[in-house]
UniProtKB/TrEMBL annotation:
Pfam families: TauE. It is found in: Cell membrane; Membrane. The keyword Ribosomal protein does not apply. It is a multi-pass membrane protein. Belongs to the 4-toluene sulfonate uptake permease (TSUP) (TC 2.A.102) family. GO terms for cellular component: plasma membrane. This is Probable membrane transporter protein. The chain crosses the membrane at residues 12-36, 81-100, 106-127, 139-158, 201-222, 234-254. It comes from Sphingomonas populi. Keywords: Cell membrane, Membrane, Transmembrane, Transmembrane helix.
């Protein structure tokens, strides 16, 4: 654990900026905070995947709480959907954190990202096609279980997996994003506790502190953006982000 009394704030400014940008995107579109930051920590800083995931989830425990409050205030949360997601998500998250702490789960990542890239392209097609018909999603609990597992095991994935699949099923973009963001707090808190029981306090690095500061500053903005952006552009932005981040992750894994 670093000595925070001798922090060089110039050294953590890039992490503050990245945490801010990632949280604005995550709060507005329901995804990407974990993926962006885990990719940075692993590919650019050489941090082990388990430590990167533990660090990101430690940060997300605070940022998702702040983002959730913003979404609740702006009435972006479907509480029935929330109840169906939380418990399976927490169970999946605990399993994923345990697996990543003890087993290398990176082999499956390119396949998961290929699936998410295809979902992103489908969302772009739906946004381009025209009117979006809102329907109550049928597959929720299994989605929460898989999303929670992949989020912990892959350092990010709750938003891409859960938000995108709910949108494919016809769930309204604004309340889907708000609900997925709000339920994520319970997932990240549980995953963080699981990592700490396996790894101790190693997740608290200077990078973690920078991401936390930037993420907390940006968290209240997500609820405002999700409420004010119309459904079709919101769907198109989710599809674009999902396709690009998934394609980049596949390229990183295969090169």
């Amino acid at each position: 654990m670093p000595d925070f009394s001798t922090i060089d704030f110039a050294a953590i400014l890039p992490f503050i900026a990245i945490g801010f940008a990632a949280q604005v995107i995550d709060g507005a579109l329901g995804m990407a905070f974990g993926l962006i930051n885990s990719t940075l920590l692993v590919s650019m800083l050489g941090m082990p995947p388990a430590l990167a995931s533990a660090s990101v989830h430690a940060v997300e425990t605070f940022t998702t709480a702040a983002s959730g409050v913003s979404h609740i205030y702006h009435r972006n949360v479907d509480w029935r959907l929330f109840r169906r997601l939380v418990i399976p998500g927490v169970i999946g998250g605990v399993l994923g954190a345990y697996v990543l702490s003890n087993v290398d789960a990176a082999v499956a990542k390119p396949f998961v990202m290929a699936y998410l890239a295809a979902i992103g392209l489908f969302l772009l097609y739906r946004a381009w096609r025209g009117a979006l018909s809102v329907q109550s999603p049928k597959i929720v609990a299994p989605l929460g279980l898989v999303g929670g597992f992949l989020d912990a095991a892959g350092g990010g994935g709750w938003g891409p997996v859960v938000t995108s699949n709910l949108l494919v099923q016809g769930s309204a973009p604004r309340t889907t994003i708000g609900t997925v963001n709000t339920s994520e707090f319970f997932l990240t808190a549980t995953v963080s506790i699981t990592f700490f029981t396996q790894m101790g306090l190693a997740a608290f690095t200077l990078a973690t502190l920078g991401l936390l500061i930037g993420g907390l500053v940006a968290a209240p903005l997500g609820g405002v953006l999700a409420k004010r952006v119309p459904a079709r552009p919101l769907m198109a932005m989710v599809g674009t982000l999902l396709t690009l981040t998934s394609a980049y992750t596949i390229w990183q894994a295969l090169r």
